[in-house]
Design a protein that fits this description.
The model has no long low-confidence stretch (mean pLDDT about 85). The protein has helices at about 1-25, 35-40, 55-90, 105-120, 130-150, 155-180, 185-195, 205-220, 225-230, 235-240, 245-265, 270-285, 290-310, 320-340, and strands spanning about 150, 155. By secondary structure, it is an all-alpha fold. It is globular and about 65 Å long. α1 (about 1-25) packs across α3 (about 55-90), α4 packs antiparallel against α7 (about 185-195) and α5 (about 130-150) runs antiparallel to α6 (about 155-180). β1 (about 150) and β2 form a beta hairpin. It is built from 14 helices and 2 strands, in the order αααααββααααααααα. The chain has a two-stranded antiparallel ribbon.
Length: about 350
Amino acid sequence: MNKKFMLFSFVLFMVLIVSMTFAVMVGSVSVTPLYVWKVILSKIPFIQNAIEQDWSRSQEIIIWQIRAPRVLLAAIVGAGLAIAGAAIQALVRNSIADPYILGISSGAAVGATSVIILGAFSFLGIYALSVSAFLGSLLAIVLVFFLSRVGGRVSIFRLLLAGMAVSFILTAISNFILMMSKQEGALKAVMFWMLGSLAGAKWNNIVIPAFVFFVVFGLLWLHYRNLNLLLLGEEAAVTLGVNLQQFRIQLILLVSLLTGVLVAVSGSIGFVGLIIPHIVRLIVGSNYKYVIPISALIGGIFLVWADAFARIIIAPQEMPIGIITAFCGGPFFIWLLRRNNYSFGEGD
């Protein structure tokens, strides 16, 4: 299985690279793949002098400053939401759980709405939206975590109920702020953000999401055995040596940190954390040694293509990426429901 896994991972990685190249190429101004890679390689130290600079300044701006950071952010957000979804599904042993079940998205929406409508954190300039959305998501998970503790222990049942309750409350706060606002432009901006958008991608706001993604990815992959044991049930996991409460807390914090950071830069993009782990389990089974890396690769590929379609489907306007992912996610789950033999963890 290891050789097949390595080969499959390599194929998916190459598909991701090709997808990202295509996504950089398409738009109101088309560029060739040769120029895409020439411009990108010209930014890498030690080999930049070997690249013949035969492209225009406008082509370089389009490729390097506008499209490349957006496509890279799409890959990071897609991969991050996919592994967060896979981890949450193992945590709650529920195949329809996703990263937003803990109220993270609703918390981030309150933060974003406060910035766009009320002008909160305006002293932070271009970072106000990201910082406020992250703080909102952090507030949400702290509330959920506090409400879910019983006798010093985290109850999964209470965790789910607390997540739903906090999500409803925070959504109501966001809607109240929107209803009180008379700014049409601001209302449109908030709705666009809530449906997900990567239009604000810049090189300087990719560093933190990328760093957090790789740290969380590494930690989840290192603990794949514990994730596998969670699927067996609480008693089996404890019997086999898992410190259940400690691991749950670590998992909640890791997933919340990753999702909060990603939502802060991309808005609420639904269904990625729901459908990608399902697809991966259908392909490689439920062993998290394979589920985590394959989810990251397929999640990245999926969102890169979703963002590309969002940019070109109603050009010159842009469609919120959340609409694209919903169009994909809905039919997928209808098909999944029709498969009588599907169950969580199928393929073991």
